[in-house]
Structure formats: C-alpha cells, structure tokens
Amino acid sequence: MSTTPILLTPGPLTTAEATRRAMMRDWGSRDPAFIALTAELRQRILTVANGEGTHAAVPLQGSGTFIVEAAIATLVGPADRLLVLVNGAYGERMVAIARRMGRAVEALRWPEDRAVEPGAVAEALRADPSITHVALVHCETTTGILNPLPAIAAAVAGEGRALLLDAMSSFGALEIDLSATPVTAVLASSNKCLEGVPGIGFALVRPEALERAAGASPSLSFDLHAQWKGFESDGQWRFTPPVQVVAALVEALRLLEAEGGPAARRRRYADNLATLLAGMRRLGFEPFLEEAVQAPIIATFRMPEGRPLAFRPFYDALAERGFLIYPGKLTRAETFRIGCIGALDRRDFERLLLAVAEVMAALEAA
Ligand SMILES: *Cc1c(COP(=O)(O)O)cnc(C)c1O
C-alpha cells in the first residue's frame, strides 16, 4: 500500500498531518529549545487531566507497557501488596509485570464483558488490610469496556489504599479529573487518544508517592523516581529522548486544545462509534458488549453467525481498500475489533461501512 492507510486500531493510529510534520526537524536533546519543548509537554499532559498542583508529569521513552512496568516497579515497594482488578488482557499484563518485578500481587477477576464492580473492590480491601495498592484499567482495550473510574477510585480511597490507573486507551478523550478523583498515578502513552506517534509513555504521579519510592525500583531504566528527579533538576531526560516523538506529541496536544479538549474529542469519538455500531448492525455484525458498558474507543464485533467469513480474507480485502482493522483478543468468541479513535470523523466511518458491504458481497460471491 503506497498511500497512508486509515488505522482503525487502538494505536498506533491515524494522526493529523500537522502532527507528522512536526517531526521534520532535528533537535539537540540538551539544547534550551528542546528543554522548553519538554517543559511544555509535561505541563500540557497535566492540564489534560486537571493535575496541576497535585501531580507530577514523568514521561518515559518507550511504549505504553514500559510506563506500566516502570510505575509498578517504582511505586509498589518490596514490602507492599498489589491488587489488580482484571477484566481483560491488560489487567492480566499488570499481574504478570508485578510478578516479574518480584512484587506481591493478586487479582480480582470479572468476565470480559462485565465492568469492574466498586462494591466488590471495597469488600476485598476490607477483607485484606495487607493490600497497599490497587491497579485498574480504565478502558479495557481487549473488548472496549469502560470501568467506572470515579466509583472505584472512591472505594479505594475510602479504604485508604493507593490507586494506579492504566488510562492508556482513555487519556485525552474520557474524563479523568485528578482534582476530583483520588488517583495516585495515571499511566498513558503518546499514540492513543492523544493522537501522537508511538514512542513515549508517561505517568502523572502524586509527588509524595514518588518521594517515598526513592531507590525502590529494581531497574535502572524503569525508575520513575530517578526519571522525575532528572526532569526536576535540569529539565532534561535522563537518557536519549525520542526528540521527534516529543515534538509530534506537543503538536498533538496543541491540536487537542484547539479541538476543545478531552470533552470535544470524546464527542467526536462517540459520533464515530455511533456511526460504526449502527452501520455494522445493518450489515449483520453484533457488537460483543452491551451499549451501557461500551466506551467510545474501540468496538468488538462477533463474526456473523451462519456465514463463512474468516478474519484473514476479510482483513486483507479491507486493507486493499485502505482500511486496517484489528484482530480480536478474546479467548472465547470469534471476534474482531474496530477502533473509533485517531484523527478520523464520521465520514471515514461511512466510507469504511461502504467498504465492508462491498467486501462481504465479494467474499460471499467467491
Ligand atoms: C495499548 C495499551 C497498553 C499497552 O501499550 P503498548 O504501547 O502496546 O505497550 C496497556 N494498557 C492498555 C489499556 C492499552 O490499551
């Protein structure tokens, strides 16, 4: 494919041309101009979540998983105990990370089509005072399900524990208000709802939690306390920063502000989702989730029943028409996923639906 495809994935995703253009120059990583860009980046990600004055922004080179690993390694100490609330693959990944880091961890699990229940969380915490930290995935990208953040955060804070929030696929679009919601650390990355390019993860962390974590991480690179101290001392990244990715992310954050902030972005994504769900239903595809728990981020569809449609030829035929969809990540049902996020609007989804109809007719005729 020679032209840029439309990415209907959970990231990397379709970016604005201005964001890609921001990468067309070089930066000296220790030059004042880049230090100022880094300061703008740290400021802007705090603003997105209303975290000025309460949280510190700590960007880290790498993908989203890197920042989750760094946060668990740094903030969950050797004497602490982590409870992960799991209803999908990203929750399971946090359990695996904590085990690798040698941290005490356990999981409370729900089926993939059910949201985490705040009452059950409060009960589990009351039953086990040795749990110090709770980890939650805001939008479980495995299915696209939304977990009720405000109620879970209140339950965790009510029991006096710290909450680590994987907001990878929600940050920048779904509401996260750190001035009203008690969260110790929010984790996200450059290439999902912020519509930047891949290469940066970041944490917004309460400074008290960082101070308490000095020297706790068993990893030199995945040490959020040391990374934070680096930024605080001279405004610079500890190790080589992905300079073009920083420039693209700052441009993407300016575009987010110009669009009207996370609330406006959420409305655009919700419109994308509504267009997609209505059109796919007409074509015979049932969404995996009930609408009440579906976040406007990514939708999971079942393969139509009684019709021999395999994922691979379906994928290839759509790719030929310029649309890249995403495989399912479920253990049980045969599914695929279509993202609603990225620099896309309703018209892109209307064109996608025409392509899906065309592809189905061609595959059924074959
Ligand atoms: C994408 C994602 C991750 C992992 O990010 P990578 O960039 O693939 O490492 C973690 N959690 C959630 C909820 C995600 O959507």
Number of strands: 14
Report the structural category.
alpha/beta
Let me know the CATH homologous superfamily of the largest domain: Type I PLP-dependent aspartate aminotransferase-like (Major domain)
- The number of distinct helices, counting runs of at least 4 residues, comes to 12
Strand content: 15-25%
CATH topology of the largest domain: Aspartate Aminotransferase, domain 2
Helix content: 40-55%
Sequence of secondary-structure elements: EHHEHEHEHEEEHEEEHHHHEHEEEH
Look at the structure and give the mean pLDDT: 96
**Overall spatial form:** globular
Number of domains: 2
- N→C terminal distance: 23 Å
Briefly, what CATH class of the largest domain?
Answer: Alpha Beta
Bound molecules: pyridoxal-5'-phosphate
| Sheet with most strands: strand arrangement | 2-10-9-8-5-3-4
Write the layout of secondary structure elements.
Blueprint: E1 6-7, H1 17-21, H2 32-48, E2 56-61, H3 64-75, E3 81-86, H4 89-100, E4 104-109, H5 118-127, E5 133-137, E6 139-140, E7 145-146, H6 149-158, E8 162-166, E9 185-189, E10 200-205, H7 207-212, H8 224-234, H9 243-259, H10 261-282, E11 298-302, H11 311-320, E12 323-324, E13 326-327, E14 335-339, H12 346-365
Parallel strand pairs: 1-12, 3-4, 3-5, 5-8, 8-9
Antiparallel strand pairs: 2-10, 6-7, 9-10, 11-14, 13-14
Helix pairs in contact: 2-9, 5-6, 9-10, 10-12, 11-12
Bound molecules: pyridoxal-5'-phosphate.
